[in-house]
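One record is kept unedited as follows:
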Amino acid sequence: MSLLDVSIVSVALPSLQQSLGAEPATVQWVVSGYALTFGLALVPAGRLGDALGRRRMFLGALSAFVLFSGLAGAAPSIGLLVAARLAQGLAAGALAPQNSGLIQQLFSGAERGRAFGLFGATVGISTAVGPVVGGVILALAGGVDGWRWIFLVNVPIGVVALVLAARLIPRTAAGRAGHIDVVGGLLLAGAVLAVLLPLAEADAGGLARLWWLFPVAVGTAALFVRWERRVMRRHGAPLLDLRLLSSTRGYATGAALGAVYFLGFSGIWLVFALFLQSGLGYTPLQSGLSVTAFAIGSAVSAAIGGRLVERFGRRLTVIGLSGVLIGLLVTIGVVLVVPAESLAGALAVPLLVAGIGGGLVISPNITLTLREVPVRMAGSAGGALQTGQRVGAAIGTAALPGAYYLVLGATGQDHQVAAAVALSGAVLSVTAALVIAVRDLRQERVARRRCTEEETHSYDHAAHG
């Protein structure tokens, strides 16, 4: 639910604007405001889960998410809808890191890989099928107020999830509740806000008006790192233990790969929505169904990838990223040469290939990134990982549609060329993630070779001794 609500609303914006009589820039905050507060909450909420208990945080955040979903669906004005969406985003951001933290806490070994496989499949599917689900809901609801069911559908699902969570998530001992790094939380929130706010306002000229916030973000992030090191030197409990980045094998690489991959992965769906609906005149449902092949491929391969990650390791993400790259390159070719009436069918095969590849990226990367993380840091580690993904997604959802509109204006409304150029930005993002994965695979092989040589040397030394 929490990830679907990032993308599902996009298809409902036109009817929502008409229903509430709102300005386009204000309506955009229904999407960007949710993404903004979602990103702000992740790391602090992960740390609170570590300290106060993940079960408690999960149930509280899920309850809040259901409540604010209902308020968003019932909102009589655009102002109250945006306020409900901001609160809903905070609840979603508090909920998300408890998932990965609970998996770290409750599973180990091959079981953990399978659990992360299901988790990764959910992440991939939720991000990919948002436009499809949104189109279906709007088609079924109908009427000028049909958009309300985009939010109201969360209420019955959330209530069932609450009952199941209360029954099935075991009670476990919490960490030290008295040591919450408030200063670190404020500094990190300031850095994330300074990055995300200009991107959230991109459609209303936010990048040109608020560009100065990016240097502020860099400075605030530097202060955050200095503060966290100070807390660690004094043997306190930091918001984010920096040893995750410096000493935890695979974490820094996996976090970087996830952020870069989501930069392209998230922006693709907005480009397709713009191209298919504005450019080719598809309905929201037709637009969503046209990219369903990606979601299907991603769902199947993510579940399989979770079972194979212990055996193949980083090779799996290299294979997956190669599949995404090939699928996207062929998709660009199809967009450029296939006529509009045949495009939906022609997109199916390359998007299926890209989806199968994508399922072998998100799920295994989450497992590889978090498998060496100590359980006591699981919540903050999962929160930081997802914060990187949210920042990457925010950049992608601003940059790729921005490129689409830029090329559209420069080419005299050539929607095919605009879509191809915007999708090329996703190709660059996936290529960068592939470079990171290949480099990590090489380092992994070098480390394994050294370990084998040391074992052989020790054996020979003992034999001759």
